[in-house]
Amino acid sequence: MSSEQLVHDVEKGNIVVIREPSPKNNHWKCLSICSFLLLIGAVTVFALLQLDAFGLSEKQVSNTSWVKSEGLLFRKVPMGASLRSGKPAAHAVASSRHSSQLKWTADVFPSILENGMRLDENENSLVVPSTGLYFVYSQLLFHKDNCKKPLLLTHNITCWSSDFSLEVELLKSIKSVCEEASSNKKLWFESIYQGAVFQLNKGDRLMSKTNLPEYLDFTHSTQIYFGVIAM
């Protein structure tokens, strides 16, 4: 409720009533103005963030173009983007077009080749662009509908040294399956993963191989992969 004051007008001999504005109304007006200003600021910041996000997305899309074929995403144009860290990196997956042998490809999503890393399709190897420490990893996925005889699966990661012209074995895993072969066991899966850090030189070639490529599960080719990351 507003307060009132009685003021005597000497010249006219009248009494004037002066009504003062309510402090409560002034308080709500201040809150309303502050809330409005905060809302304007929040909308402005959100709009700027959205514009920046859209700009980044457009750059990413322009750097990489994919096309869908046979249920897979294939790279349409070579990637020109680089990782923010500036370090070499590669992630290749098995090519489903070669069901009788293990062939690596960087043309199928989610494969990458960044900052100098190269896949030599003729040698089926990843080529190291610079000397340094690298984390090398690989996974193979095996599968068969029957289990008629015992099998010994091997997974090797080797390096062809550019300095010594010699192939060196970096990692090796061995797993046995179908040890108790019988007609009752008709379906089996087996995955072998391995990885470690190595000192590699510029020009070194890395290879991931197996002794029984005919048992690889190429229906899930993206789960058969081979990668290198600079430390």
From TrEMBL:
Statement: the UniProt record of this protein carries the keyword Chloroplast: no
GO biological process: antiviral innate immune response; canonical NF-kappaB signal transduction; cellular response to amino acid stimulus; cellular response to ionizing radiation; cellular response to lipopolysaccharide; cellular response to nicotine; cellular response to type II interferon; chronic inflammatory response to antigenic stimulus
Topology class, membrane: Single-pass type II membrane protein
SUPFAM superfamilies: TNF-like
The entry's keywords: Cell membrane, Cytokine, Disulfide bond, Lipoprotein, Membrane, Myristate, Secreted, Signal-anchor, Transmembrane, Transmembrane helix
Superkingdom, natural source: Eukaryota
Listed transmembrane segments: 28-49
Location(s) in or outside the cell: Cell membrane; Secreted
Function statement: The TNF intracellular domain (ICD) form induces IL12 production in dendritic cells.
Name this protein carries in UniProt: Tumor necrosis factor
CDD domains, A to Z: TNF (cd00184)
UniProt main location, coarse: membrane
Similarity-based family: Belongs to the tumor necrosis factor family.
A GO CC term assigned to this protein in UniProt: membrane raft
MF (Gene Ontology): cytokine activity; death receptor agonist activity; identical protein binding; protease binding; transcription cis-regulatory region binding; tumor necrosis factor receptor binding
THD domain boundaries: 88-231
